[in-house]
Amino acid sequence: MEDVSYSEAIQKANASITRFPLIPVKGIPLMNHIANNWDSIWAFRPDPSDILIATYPKAGTTWTQEIVDLLFHNGDAEACRRAPIPLRSPFLEIWSPPPIPSGLDLLREMDPPRITKTHLPFQLVPPAFWENKCKTIYMARNAKDNLVSYYYFDCMNMAQPEPGPWEGYIHKFMRGELAWGSWYDHVKGYWVEKEKRNILYIFYEDMKENPRREIGRIMRYLDLSVSDEVISRIVELTSFKNMKENPMANYSFIPASVFDNSVSAFMRKGEVGDWTNHFTPEQSKMFDEDYEKQMGDVNIPFKTLI
């Protein structure tokens, strides 16, 4: 599907796009159109060569997708501008009003190896991904920055549930009442399975701190080999500034009636530590105390500042 027709499909579907309600699937709140088509999603069988990019929402998903696509195309920027990112790297579980194609529709049109994106927690990933030993990259972002980014996204995304005020959103996040459920369970689910399932677990903060090193890790994990010059090019092409200006990656192809950039940009800041501009000292203390309780059973080395 060409990018023009994809944009046109979204325009045509505008009338039926609303803030979709959440319905639990195996205890995880998902938007109703995902829940209503769950059997088809769960039954999806990837090719063993397919790559899965998994994240909690707003944890560096698009960034990781673009890096992987560039690695597969040897850093060729033009090849990676062939289509908007949802067409190059389909969103596995997404279902939208017709005529927008679902993630499964797009995947069926592609030849392996396919790069697939998901926000599903580990236990909801279609089991054939693990049966077929698909390579999986999991990008995790520290809770406070992830919360802030998700809040702004829910404000500007007219298909997500109404976020309500910031003060209440913090509690929704802590209770796992947002689309795709609990951040805590999400990051822990992939962490505890990473050795058994050969999952490459990377951190947003490490990627910000040393993108060359982390892109090299991804390259080796994918059994690819590109030159140092190509790695340098990918570092430059996937900088926040360049990603934000790239019309094939910045979601500017989504109409304003769905992604309202006057409320917030899809790519807003991409910083580590922006949470300090949003949490009051009291909110931070409350959050930290709850965090210790929810994360006490694992030792995942998150950084809230770099």
Automatic annotation (TrEMBL):
Query: Where is it mainly found?
Result: cytoplasm
Q: Where in the cell is it found?
A: Cytoplasm
GO term, biological process aspect, one: xenobiotic metabolic process
Q: What are its E.C. numbers?
A: 2.8.2.-
PANTHER family attached to this UniProt entry:
SULFOTRANSFERASE SULT
Per the record, the similarity remark reads: Belongs to the sulfotransferase 1 family.
According to UniProt, the name of this protein is Sulfotransferase
Write down the species. Channa argus
